[in-house]
Amino acid sequence: MKLPPLCEESVIHRLDALKFFEILQLNAMLVSVLTVRKLRLKNFRRIFVSTLALLLCFCLAPQAVLAEDNSKLLESARLFTQKGYIDRAVAVYDGILAKSPNDFTVLEARGNTLFSDGRWGMTIPAMQKLVAINPRYQHGFVLLAISYARLQNYKQAAVAYDKAIALGGPETGTAHRGKALLLMQLEQLESARKEIALAIINDKPFPQLAGENTNAAMAIERHAVMLPPATFASAAVPELVQAEALLGAGQGTRSLELLERVLAAHPNNARAHVLKGRIFFDAIESEKAIAEYSRAIALVPTYQYGYIALAKCYFQLERFGDALAQVDHAIKLGGPTDAVAHEEKGCILVKMGRALDGRVEIDKALKIHKSNFDIYEDLYDRAEADRALRDYPALIVDIGKRLQINDTNSADWQARGEAYLAAGKLDKALADLGYTLVLAPGNRAALKGLIEIYKKKGDKARVNEFQKRLKEVDESY
Q1: pLDDT, tens digit, for every residue of 73-102?
Q2: Considering all CA atoms of the chain, what is the largest pairwise distance in Å, rounded to the nearest integer?
Q3: 421: helix, coil or strand?
Q4: Where are the alpha helices (DSSP H) in 168-249?
Q5: Domain map (residue ranges) of the chain
Q6: Are 433 and 449 contacting, i.e. CB atoms less than 8 angstroms apart?
Q7: pLDDT tens-digit readout, 103-143
Q8: Which residue, 2, 232, 352, 464, is most buried by CB atoms nearer than 10 A?
């Protein structure tokens, strides 16, 4: 959609127009007073009525203009936001609020703009004012909590999440999920698990959020096994919690700076080395990650996940032999991450062309894992082994199990549809690929699959229909 040209001057003129009407009101009052003094008293009634009518016109006119003008100004602010002119948009909102300081719609639009731009410090007072005007505004408390968390003010973030939860409403699940991730950062893992369980319960009416809850739960479980216990660290320092919180918020650079300071003071802190290794791994700097994980293992030789992390780094470098050696050491060592070790070994073996052996290892992980979230991920890896073996019946079963846990993932519907197609079950493939397009209308693989099915069925009209849709999708990119 082509946006209309933005004119900052026109926005200023609209604000100036409101001042003009105020001046007219004062002039009308002055004229009426002077007129009454000059004319005789017997004409006072007529003058009074005329003046009152005049005043009503001038009093009501600005209100009508204000309502209409606010609407135009809001539209201008939204256009500024769409174009990325956030400062201009905020200036327009501030101009409206100078006349109508408690206009909830404008305050809400301003707060959402600041939040979307990542201006957490400015979002906080904006949301505080909104929840002061409407104490039942759940969305405001959620954004307030997220903003506090981004600024590492965890105590206030927890308070805001609790208020959002106490209010009830459509974002209760979101608040529980946010609080769960907050508690994870503070290493209160049992409480985090309870919160994510409540998020799942509250989000049942919103199946589109199932994926977010699954990812959050997986993050909590990974966190539980990823770091060596605090007692293993030579110096447990509070800055580590902050560094991990920054990393969890996607601020790897700031987290790395903090970890460098921690390690300068405590060079033998295994936890700091692990976190630093994770930053390098996420940045695909595998060699640097290997150095940090190796240092952590040297400090804590019994740290099982350290060997798994090294295996992941070697896997990233496609050094599958080295990766296998590390994960075998982790399995031999034994510990709380046995299932993760078997899962990782399975993935390595599949990449090495040993898909049947890989599937055996993944089955070992499935026997250990109890959580639906871990099973969901294991089934993905098992499906990869099935695909490598071209074992389409097994692939259909494994993806079906994933869909029983989470039926909102379009990629799973697509994968099962393709498996049905490969197995020659055209009607079932048609159903799954058709539903894929319901969830993801622009899915090219699903469209291609449907074209192939209708070609096999000899339905030229449907072939043409989906070829046209595929062309529209391609042209939109």
Answers
A1: 878 888 888 778 888 888 888 888 888 888
A2: 111
A3: helix
A4: 172-185, 189-202, 210-226, 239-248
A5: 1-101
A6: yes
A7: 898 899 999 999 988 888 899 999 999 999 999 999 999 99
A8: 232
